[in-house]
Amino acid sequence: MTKISTQLSAVRERIQAACRASGRPTEAVALLAVSKTFGADAVQAAFEAGQTAFGENYIQEAVGKITALRHLPLVWHCIGPIQSNKTRLVAEHFDWVHTVDRLKIAQRLSEQRPAELPPLQVCIQVNVDGGPTKSGVAPEDALALAQAVAGLPRLRLRGVMCIPEPAPDFEAACQVFKRAATLFDALKAQGLQLDTLSMGMSADLEAAVASGSTLVRVGSAIFGARHYPV
Ligand SMILES: *Cc1c(COP(=O)(O)O)cnc(C)c1O
């Protein structure tokens, strides 16, 4: 077994244990492998260990990998902030985007999504812990944004994503994640057909699963520590 396949198995076991602990079926939570800063070889190794969904933050870097691995049946999720001048690359190369937090970006993605591709699958990013510098729509504005996004022709709204600040302990993490879960339920109660609550990373996936996450985004626990280019 390669190191990546061993670590991938360990992460899958953590997800299963977290599901059991909260009485949820293990298939209720999917794993997104976050491959930012790692090369196409690392993605290929994870694919050979059974992983097909990958998350990337840096658009340019991701497009290189997506193009290099075209021959594999992979599903690519954009989980990084999106500037207006990058929407075309995202619309043309990714299957999912988790980080839509304003209508202008959503409109551009919809206009630029190529006609021959299926609709772009979208989550609204919500700033659940109110950090002033963080991206994400304020919870009170999430319904209006979600309804507007749901009406765009080339997007398909799937749910909600959040990236809270690291919490001091499990209970504190659950408190914040539960705010996202409550909002997710409230949007569904308004008639939006959502199935994806994207939350939880290497350090806090147990708390996220306990709070209702349906998709955990895990990088370093699978691929190892990241070394950012300066
Ligand atoms: C990098 C990143 C992750 C993965 O973080 P790890 O701590 O390495 O698991 C998840 N979500 C987002 C939005 C990220 O930027």
Write a compact overview of the structure shown:
With 230 residues, the protein is α/β, with parallel strands linked by helices.
Feature tags:
230 residues; alpha/beta; TIM Barrel; eight-stranded parallel sheet; 9 helices; 8 strands; globular; binds pyridoxal-5'-phosphate
Overview of this protein structure:
By secondary structure, the protein is of the alpha/beta class. It has one domain: Alanine racemase (TIM Barrel), CATH 3.20.20. Helix content is 41%, strand content 17%. The protein has nine helices and eight strands. Strands 7-6-5-4-3-2-1-8 form an eight-stranded parallel beta sheet. Helix 2 (40-48) links the parallel strand 1 (30-34) and strand 2 (53-56). Helix 4 crosses helix 5 (103-112). The model has no long low-confidence stretch (mean pLDDT 96). Pyridoxal-5'-phosphate binds next to strand 8 and helix 9. Pyridoxal-5'-phosphate binds at residues 34, 36, 57, 79, 163, 201-203, 217-221.
Q: How do the helices and strands line up, and which of them pair or pack?
A:
Layout: H1 3-21, E1 30-34, H2 40-48, E2 53-56, H3 59-68, E3 75-78, H4 87-93, E4 96-100, H5 103-112, E5 120-125, H6 142-150, E6 155-161, H7 170-189, E7 196-198, H8 205-210, E8 215-218, H9 220-223
Parallel strand pairs: 1-2, 1-8, 2-3, 3-4, 4-5, 5-6, 6-7
Helix pairs in contact: 4-5
The structure holds pyridoxal-5'-phosphate (PLP).
